Amino acid sequence: MTLNITKTIGGRWVLLAGVGSMLLGASACSPEAAPAPETTEQVKQPLAAPIGQTIWLKACLNSKFISADGNLGATAPLVADRAAAAGWELFQIVDAGSGTIALRVSETGMYVSADTNLGGQLVANRTTIGDWERFTWVDFNNGTYGLIAKSTGKYVSTDSNRGANAPLYADRATAGCWESFSFGTSGSSTGGWKQIWSDEFDGTSVNTANWSYITNIHVNSEQQQYTTSGNNVQVSNGTLKLIARRESNNGYPFTSGRLESAGKKEFSHGAVEARLKMPVGPGLWPAFWLLGNDIGSVGWPACGELDIMENVGYSDWTSGALHGPGYSGNTPINGRFYPNSSVSNWHTYRTEYSSTDIKWFIDGALVKTTTKAQVNQYGNWVYDKPMYIILNLAVGGGYPAGVNGATSPYYGVPQSTADLIAQTPQVFEIDWVRVYQWQ
Questions:
Q1: Quick check: do 40-190 and 194-438 share a fold?
Q2: For residues 179 and 52, what is the distance between their CA atoms, to the nearest angstrom?
Q3: Does the N-terminal peptide bond of residue 301 adopt cis geometry, omega within 30 degrees of 0?
Q4: Helix residue spans in 328-389 (DSSP H)
Q5: 299 C-beta neighbours (distance < 10 Å), count
Q6: Which of 99, 208, 281, 380 could form an SS bridge with 417, CB 3.0 to 4.6 Å?
Q7: HSE (CB half, 13 Å, CA atoms) of 260?
Q8: Are the beta carbons of 235 and 206 closer than 8 angstroms?
Q9: Is-contact 105 68, C-beta < 8 A?
Q10: Residue 41 in 3-state DSSP?
């Protein structure tokens, strides 16, 4: 289908699906119970942590829930003094790489940190994951668990001698009841993000049960003709490759590839992520995004567009945005995001979208949250419907031109990039695409 779209800012959003009622009946060890192993050497680790699940933690010390209550102040420590678990007491467990996890507070989307500048005090005010925000999940083999902070190499403790509310510090070399926790998942014992679909690109051709080749899209003053040719779209060695070449086709100076899942794989409220590696050169425009499946009846932007990741050829940043009625084109709902290394390296880009908000993540780190209330300041919220996935590599056009200022030799494509593509076709590589829903 042909879209009459103007885009000058990209967008990547993520929405955390809602969680239901909590399991509050799991047992916790009492202070008088047998302590956990006393040395790190005695501990079997690591148990596979409940990655992707939202959990509560209950202190062995006093059988109270751990809380990251923001009303106590941005730098106030986490405390172990709550009789029940609600938003401040719920944490999503995130894979932080290299066998570590991060804890994201459900109420705010912020990460828990054992900041060494605060003496290892646990606070919950960090927007990205660094070493301060990484923990090892430890199984004490007695129904309780511990956390070792990467920043200090010490166990997280709820030592009541520090105060009646048992503030949390990561400063203990050994583990006893103060350093032990039970946990349970919110919603149900099996609740969490469940993968419902993926394309791992392990074959030798595009799976047409999942994707359609799109060749009739000419929007945003882009300079490429999309084709079905293997020169522009390939599946090999476990990845999908969308390839831009400098060759004339249908009056356009470049060719490239675009795939869409419309009418084949469409998803409502959930999480969509892909592992991507991008070419670098001003004017190259790879994108990973979603459109509402009612575009044929309501048009754009009324259908809603959720840009998970866009890049216009710069190595150090990507962007994300929402486009909808009243906030399209140069949309005010956008942001630039900075991966921890060049976009030419592999990174995972993710969005989580629900009826209340949308969130963007890069490599598991939350980079932006936009709520329904914020969107409604500009226009209608149009993301409570099935949406389909688009992967494409554009060349030039309005968004790149708005950043690089190039008008020649092609709009949005400076001479250096035109020469680069002529010398070596440029590849947008996709390792996999996966979709999850909260169950």
A1: no
A2: 23
A3: yes
A4: 372-376
A5: 12
A6: 281
A7: 16
A8: yes
A9: yes
A10: helix
| Residue range 311-362, pLDDT digits in tens | 999 999 999 999 999 999 999 999 999 999 999 999 999 999 988 899 999 9
Give the start-to-end residue ranges of the domains of the chain: 40-190, 194-438
* Contact call for residues 391 and 242 (beta carbons, < 8 A): yes
Sign of CA dihedral 76, 79, 81, 84: positive
Hey, what are 173's tokens?
């070399």
DSSP 378: T
260 in Cβ contact with 267 (< 8 Å): no
Answer yes or no: is pLDDT of 298 > 90.
yes
CATH classification for the domain delimited by 40-190, as one of 3.40.50.300, 2.40.10.10, 1.10.3720.10, 2.80.10.50: 2.80.10.50
- Stretch 371-377: mean pLDDT: 94
Q: Which amino acid is at 371?
A: T
Closest C-alpha to 143, from 2, 224, 26:
26
Q: What global pTM score does this model have?
A: 0.62
How many whole angstroms separate alpha carbon 263 and alpha carbon 266? 7
Q: Which among 92, 114, 96 has a CA at the least distance from the CA of 359?
A: 92
Instruction: Name the residue with tokens 């056009």.
Output: 397
Q: What phi and psi, each to the nearest 5 degrees, are found at residue 433?
A: -130, 130
Cβ distance 308 to 349 under 8 Å?
yes
Name which of 269, 254, 66 is nearest 165 in CA terms.
Answer: 66
Provide the CATH number for the domain formed by 194-438 in this structure: 2.60.120.200
